[in-house]
Amino acid sequence: MRAGAAAARRWALLVLVALAVLLVGQSCCAEASPEADEKASSSKGAGGGGRRRRRAAAAAPVATMVPITILKSAVDQGAVCMDGTPPAYHFDPGSGAGNNSWIVNLEGGGWCNNVRGCQFRKGSRRGSSDLMEKEIPFGGIMSRSPADNPDFYNWNRVKIRYCDGASFAGEGFDKVNGFYFRGQRIWDATIRHLLSIGMASADQVLLTGCSAGGLAAILHCDEFRAFFPSSNGRSTTVKCLADAGLFLDAVDVSGGRSLRSYYSDIVAMQGVAPNLPPACTARLDATSCFFPQNVIDGIKTPIFLLNAAYDVWQVQESLAPNGADPSGAWRACKFNRSACSESQMKFLQDFRDQMVASVKGFSGSRSNGLFINSCFTHCQSEYPFTWNNAAGGSPAIQNKGIAQSVGDWYFNRAEVKAIDCPYPCDTTCRHAI
């Protein structure tokens, strides 16, 4: 039992380290100081790196280190990071039967909504390819290990680095502050480059992303499909997977809408509106169309939503951010689920119910997939501990883990519409708080 408890503590620490980096340079309600963010940036990482993340990855089963490629040719198209440097990606080639199949992973890592936040981001790996790691680990769905990643291990696997601040959807230039908001151009230029080096002839492709990258996968899913037109009787199987990207337009603990206010600033500052799904913007305002719940029903391409019903990023930054909780009544609860009062847990259960309700129409399509588990965590597809049963105990719904669920959906082995019972019924969770 002691060994099991120690393993659980190590997992919670790993996830908290990963989550912390997703928050670096951002806060939707109470802005962190650049000094505090710099300390976090230098010691934490997920989906992008950092010293502590590398130590954690080294201890995890099979995390291949993959070198960076700087896409200098994209500069001529104005596709640049926030500081004007070229975009970048990491590529681990496929092998054998996977030679003609591709996973494209959009890196996550928050957003920026004002000059102060974007200035900090511009001077970090989230805004400059000059400051990105020269290599990063590929784990979970990006792993080349057949034991850890049986369905996708031998595919061509690409991670596109995130350096714009608006989920690869911005278009603009702030001349006064020198901010390039070119996320949409980065998306377009990098995908076209990958097509030119072999992806155009792919038999199977999967667009994925976690957190802000999961939101990007939703926003760009149909665009991705359009890059693979059927011709001469040949077609490519195109699907999308959004991990922890189902950010809800929810009421916070003060009765306000902290995340809506934050998203509104992002959309306005970075010129996001023209690049949002037109099926949504034809009926709703641009800020509403940055929320996946208003987009998913209109997506034509098959998509799988993987999300924790008690997503800890949303608990901490959307439901109970410091600005909405000046008395600190939620401070203990949002960092330790066991410290939540009965009324606080009721509030979180209502949030879970809102998430389940938001996918009701989406789940009616046989081509879509769903895995919403009752865990307090954030991002589950890129870590071996949560991705596959064989890697140490993936969270499961009805005895089926995440990797098997995604694989069954992608390869049409089974329909997957898995929604967990409310917390605390699930004993397979790898909780982060």
Describe this structure in words.
By secondary structure, this protein is of the alpha/beta class. Strand 8, helix 6 and strand 9 form a beta-alpha-beta unit. The N terminus is likely disordered. The protein is globular and about 60 Å long. The strands form three sheets. Strands 4-1-2-5-3-8-9-10-11-14 form a ten-stranded mixed β-sheet, sandwiched between helices.
Short structural description:
The chain is of the alpha/beta class and about 425 residues long.
Work out the helix count.
13
Q: What class do helices, strands and sheet pairing give?
A: alpha/beta
The largest sheet, given as strand count, sense and whether it forms a barrel, is: 10 strands, mixed
Separation of termini?
Answer: 20 Å
Describe the secondary structure blueprint for this structure.
Layout: H1 2-23, H2 34-43, H3 51-59, E1 64-70, E2 88-92, E3 101-106, H4 115-122, E4 135-138, E5 156-160, E6 172-174, E7 179-181, H5 183-196, E8 204-210, H6 212-226, E9 237-243, H7 258-269, H8 278-281, E10 303-308, H9 312-319, H10 331-335, H11 342-358, E11 369-373, H12 384-387, E12 396-397, E13 400-401, H13 402-410, E14 417-419
Parallel strand pairs: 3-5, 3-8, 8-9, 9-10, 10-11, 11-14
Antiparallel strand pairs: 1-2, 1-4, 2-5, 6-7, 12-13
